[in-house]
Amino acid sequence: MEDEREDVQKKTFTKWVNAQFSKFGKQHIENLFSDLQDGRRLLDLLEGLTGQKLPKEKGSTRVHALNNVNKALRVLQNNNVDLVNIGSTDIVDGNHKLTLGLIWNIILHWQVKNVMKNIMAGLQQTNSEKILLSWVRQSTRNYPQVNVINFTTSWSDGLALNALIHSHRPDLFDWNSVVCQQSATQRLEHAFNIARYQLGIEKLLDPEDVATTYPDKKSVLMYITSLFQVLPQQVSIEAIQEVEMLPRPPKVTKEEHFQLHHQMHYSQQITVSLAQGYERTSSPKPRFKSYAYTQAAYVTTSDPTRSPFPSQHLEAPEDKTFGSSLMESEVNLDRYQTALEEVLSWLLSAEDTLQAQGEISNDVEVVKEQFHTHEGYMMDLTAHQGQVGNILQLGSKLIGTGKLSEDEETEVQEQMTLLNSRWECLRVASMEKQSNLHRVLMDLQNQKLKELNDWLTKTEERTRKMEEEPLGPDLEDLKRQVQQHKVLQEDLEEEQVRVNSLTHMVLVVDESSGDHATAALEEQLQVLGDRWANICRWTEDRWVLLQDILLKWQRLTEEQCLFSAWLSEKEDAVNKIHTTGFKDQNEMLSSLQTLAVLKADLEKKKQSMGKLYSLKQDLLSALKNKSVTQKTEAWLENFARCWDNLVQKLEKSTAQISQAVTTTQPSLTQTTVMETVTMVTTREQILVKHAQEELPPPPPQKKRQITVDSEIRKRLDVDITELHSWITRSEAVLQSPEFAIYRKEGNFSDLKEKVNVGYALIFMCVLILCGL
């Protein structure tokens, strides 16, 4: 039955949450328990309900989830939403019962109380459920088939829901047609559809959820409140008085009431949620977490002679135990003896149980278990004290009848004395054990609190020194600081065990100072929790910073190494270029081509210099270390000098080759050579630029007109004209009588010189064409 009710609530509450998300434009949830565990969707819901912007933790670890849920719980507390025994760990761990309880409190506040607050204020009433029931009864009083007395069984047949809608909107459907419908499921389906399509109310319930022997009260109450929100809301004082006169549900028995009263006397639970630690996803794994501290305040007396049950003159509560039934029937010795044997048998078992509890441990968690075990044992004593009292009263009554012989009377008196003595010994022993457990538990818990306080003080000093130490000043120092930080994280992991041991603290106070002691412990735990959370937050934030700086520093170092190697390679290449004493035109052409390629490489590498400056800026902005800044600036200045030297060497080599060409070939000017190298370099740069911009491959070559620089075109025309003139003159020379003399004498030196001039002209034309 309980599982069925939980399933109905889960389904209904999920629909309600999604209905709110639809209003806020948020994505729906699928599983109420798992989807709320990280706290993000819970904050989304509260954002819509409160109209406030609620920032969320960026990480996805357990601690981030705890922080999100804690933030949501604080928002609920600020809005006066009741949160009894609901902590962040309950929601993060997916506790079904408490998650449903949390959502119900949210529904109760925003769906029920907010909707009804105006009419409740007008009627000067504080019970929203009573107002809602009064409204339903007033609305359906003219429907003889309907008699709503609660929010459970009165709705099972579907008539009440249809009657409620029909009483305010008779134009929507015919009442008789609903009454004639065969099944409750059909009638409920009809009402839900009318409410959805005519009144705009989401179908939060399914017919099979209500058409049961005992529908879930919370789900029905939530849905009826939705109807109340859209229908007329008149409620009369007479209707309220009529509800107040309805028969009440059966109360608990006197025995149950006695036990509950005793339990509340000993176990008044108080929950205190504190600030949580932080963790970010940049950590390699979840390092540490921080739980909410919870203490249970057991209000009792420090005097072991005082007892929750009487010591000598036991009077039984008015229950229907076997002892009282004996007293109501005819009193005789045999029945008394039978009852006495049963009580003595239980008493012997209770004595053995107390003995079996053993010595009190020195481990705080074990003592907590012993404490709770003994508390249950004390509850069992309380439950049986009435039986002991009944036997004593029965013996006294039996003696008072005067029907016993002297020996029988003496025997009964001895039995009563023995029973009372054993009971008193058991009572005193159990109270003494309880007092000792209280004392040891408080001592151990205070010791844990002191140890945690000392550790926090030491760690705060440790983190302060780490904070004051500058990061760096070189990569190896930073790696050492990262390793040092890992040690701190490991220490936090170990300390988490002590933090966990403070979960569910047990506070033992006396009746006079209970509130004061509880408030003092709450304050102490709050301070410790805040300090722990601050250390966790600082540790995770610093871990993120260290990882970010380490990555940037490694990237900068890698780029520096690559750039330095490239500079060295290019400097070697420039040094190997021949700038004078060329053996032939091919060697000169090779040097010119090498220079052009190096210039193009230099142009391409400019972006690497820009990248170095960008990486340097990113690192220094995160590091903020003057020493590292100066060192890095010195590195980059050295690279800049090497770069400038390389450029100057290239220019010098180009000038030297130009001088060599003009020396050997007077018709070739230095400007022509320089411009030729520049044009080749420019062509290489254009190709590089095209590659960088990832242009599509060029189309097949077509006959097209090329637009070029007019000066280059003129120079090309002049060179081609000169080359054409040279070829014409050469042809004339070959046909002249002078050439016949050369052939006859075998002296071709002058002719070779003229041919070399022609080769040079052809070479220059080719270079110019390459530049185009």
Determine the N-to-C terminus distance. 91 Å
Main beta sheet: strand number and arrangement? Answer: 3 strands, mixed
CATH architecture annotation name of the largest domain: Up-down Bundle
Number of domains: 6
Total number of β-strand segments? 3
Number of helices: 26
Order of helices and strands: HHHHHHHHHHHHHHEEHHHHHEHHHHHHH
Structural class: mainly alpha
Shape: elongated
Percent strand: under 5%
Low-confidence stretches: 249-329, 667-673, 679-708, 766-772
Q: Strand order within the widest sheet?
A: 1-2-3
Reported by name, the CATH topology of the largest domain is Methane Monooxygenase Hydroxylase, Chain G, domain 1
State the name of the first-level CATH class of the largest domain. Answer: Mainly Alpha
Estimate the mean pLDDT confidence. 76
As a whole number of angstroms, the C-alpha radius of gyration is 48 Å
Please give the share of residues in helix.
over 70%
Keywords: Actin-binding, Coiled coil, Repeat
Organism: Pongo abelii (Sumatran orangutan)
GO molecular function: actin binding
GO cellular component, one term: organelle
What do you see in this structure?
By secondary structure, this protein is mainly alpha-helical. The chain has six domains: 6-116, Calponin-like domain (Actin-binding Protein, T-fimbrin, domain 1, Orthogonal Bundle), CATH 1.10.418; 125-246, Actin-binding Protein, T-fimbrin, domain 1, CATH 1.10.418.10; 333-446, Methane Monooxygenase Hydroxylase, Chain G, domain 1, CATH 1.20.58.60; 449-538; 552-691, Methane Monooxygenase Hydroxylase, Chain G, domain 1 (Up-down Bundle), CATH 1.20.58; 710-770, no CATH class. The protein has 26 helices and three strands. It has helices at residues 2-24, 32-35, 40-50, 62-78, 88-92, 96-123, 128-139, 159-168, 175-179, 184-199, 207-210, 217-230, 237-244, 254-266, 322-328, 333-356, 364-400, 406-468, 475-501, 514-575, 585-623, 626-664, 670-692, 710-735, 737-745, 749-771, and strands spanning 268-271, 294-299, 505-509. The chain has a three-stranded mixed beta sheet with strand order 1-2-3. The two termini are 91 Å apart. Residues 9-109, 128-227 form the Calponin-homology (CH) domain.
